[in-house]
Amino acid sequence: MLDWFEHEGHVCIVFELLGLSTFEFLRQNHFLPFNVEQIRHMAFQIFRAVCFLHRNQLTHTDLKPENIVFVCSDYDLQYNEIRECKEKTLRSLDLKVVDFGTATFDHQKHESLVSTRHYRAPEVILGLGWNQSCDVWSLGCVLMEFYLGCTVFPTHDSKEHLAMMEKILGPIPPHLLKETR
């Protein structure tokens, strides 16, 4: 935080100017996936940020590519002969996790529905409550999206979402299904 001020009853917080979100970079780069080395470098930074939050009893609840932002999104442009298109290569992979609008302390009341649909953990979909593990699930979905260049679970329906999970990961454990509301 660089500064803060109040304007017409609203607290305004000033942060450093950051670059593109990882989603926006993927979109502008024709959804070409990141390579494994790039993902490893980005994952390390995101894990550190999420570990910091969790150590401080805070759950982000909305980890997604739109909320993971490059510090600087300068890039080099080169022609990718395999894909027959121009490909952007970032000069720096430094990034930050942003948008804490739905972040929740562990001791606070938890809303029943959290996370953006494509990154929502099965326990949230099943109405079983949630904890910091929902961030871990979301992060796994984000990293797979970086690797694939597309979302793992592209759906807007809970039943279809669970069916997609089962197709990829195998059956949902019976004890979880028994606990559903």
Automatic annotation (TrEMBL):
Keywords: ATP-binding, Kinase, Nucleotide-binding, Serine/threonine-protein kinase, Transferase
InterPro entries, sorted: CLK_kinases, Kinase-like_dom_sf, Prot_kinase_dom, Ser/Thr_kinase_AS
Domain Protein kinase: 1-181
SUPFAM superfamilies: Protein kinase-like (PK-like)
A GO biological process held by the record: regulation of RNA splicing
Pfam families for this protein: Pkinase (PF00069)
Enzyme Commission number(s): 2.7.12.1
GO cellular component: nucleus
Single GO MF annotation: protein tyrosine kinase activity
Family listed: Belongs to the protein kinase superfamily. CMGC Ser/Thr protein kinase family. Lammer subfamily.
Name used for this protein in its record: dual-specificity kinase
Gene that encodes it: LOC104943703
